[in-house]
Amino acid sequence: MKTPKISIAMATYNGGKYISEQLESLAKQTIAPYELVVCDDGSTDATVSIVEDFAERAPFPVRIYVNDENLGYADNFLGAASRCAGDWIAFCDQDDVWLPRKIEILSKKLREASSAELMWIAHTSLVSDEKLNLTGARWPDIPRDAHKSRSTHYGFFGCVGFSTVFNARLAKSIDHSLRPRMYWPIFNGPPGHDLWIGILANAMGDMAFVSEPLAIWRRHGRSATGTPTRTSILDGARRSMIATDPEHYIFSGDMAAETSSCFKKIAQSSCDPLISSRASEAAARFQILSENLTLRGALYRKTGHVDRAAICWKLIYRNAYFGKAFHSLGAKSFVKDMLFAFGGLYLLRRLASAGSPTHD
């Protein structure tokens, strides 16, 4: 495989406090990026002038665009990606730091990829405080290198954008105005650029994972996202196991239905035959996921064990728990739903409550 051309897509907005350190880390890469494309979303601080000064001395081309109106971070990132000329695109936050060998290692991974189907790579990153003191945490924390085939992840699979690189076809062969616009509470709006690219990559081709840390994720008071921790993940899993709110599943089913509709539109509009064909397949898979989630919401609305059991049998008949990973609810959901249907979840909740600390 020829040397991959990796473009960097950076979205900026009032990032003057930290952006210089990020830019310097890009300049210190052992293999230079193909280019840096910066889209600014109407900064009122020195962000643009800092990038312009850097562009004059950068060891690679730097192109700067200033939006006429504020787009929000997701559309700003996708706009930057659509302007990239490389074969591969890496999202770059304005306040993080790349480790020197990031592009070198990703380039090597791309050259060695055993499949021409590869669409996306994610790598481990280190977490730091505002002053770049490492906390000892890693996010994402990828335990081992791996290569996964198309559609072997859950439909809504994604990863934080700063820790990924993706095939430029996902930016150039797809009209991103067609992506879901439904309000997702986790994003305080439509799905973010990184989740959307992850959804596309999973639907369109293979995904790879690199366990070596290649960037530092700086966390500070102005960060757009919180910092996941192992404790919060475990606590979240516990709360998820005992939660019985049907509206969560109904809403998730609606999200999957909207995403299915989006993929249908992509299939009809893309001029890339591969993208069009696989978007059509993804639309069908998301429709199955929507039906599974909606049925699950109906289960948790029922009060009688007979009605609950009937829905469980429908889900089992649909192979909703152990079917293809893309639209499977999974073994944990199977256990939870069976407990709920036959009254065992009440005992599980009591046990979980008994194990929680009490306060006077």
UniProtKB/TrEMBL annotation:
Which InterPro entries does its entry note? Glyco_trans_2-like, Nucleotide-diphossugar_trans
What the entry lists under Gene3D superfamilies is as follows: Spore Coat Polysaccharide Biosynthesis Protein SpsA, Chain A (3.90.550.10)
Return the protein name: Glycosyltransferase 2-like domain-containing protein
A Pfam family: Glycos_transf_2
Q: What are the recorded GO MF terms, alphabetically?
A: hexosyltransferase activity
Q: Which residues cross the membrane?
A: none
Which first-to-last residue range defines the signal peptide? none
| Coiled-coil intervals | none
Per the UniProt record, the source organism is Methylosinus sporium
In terms of PANTHER family, this protein maps to: GLYCOSYLTRANSFERASE (PTHR22916), UDP-GLCNAC:BETAGAL BETA-1,3-N-ACETYLGLUCOSAMINYLTRANSFERASE-LIKE PROTEIN 1 (PTHR22916:SF3)
Query: The Glycosyltransferase 2-like domain covers which part of the protein?
Result: 7-169
Q: Which domain of life is it from?
A: Bacteria
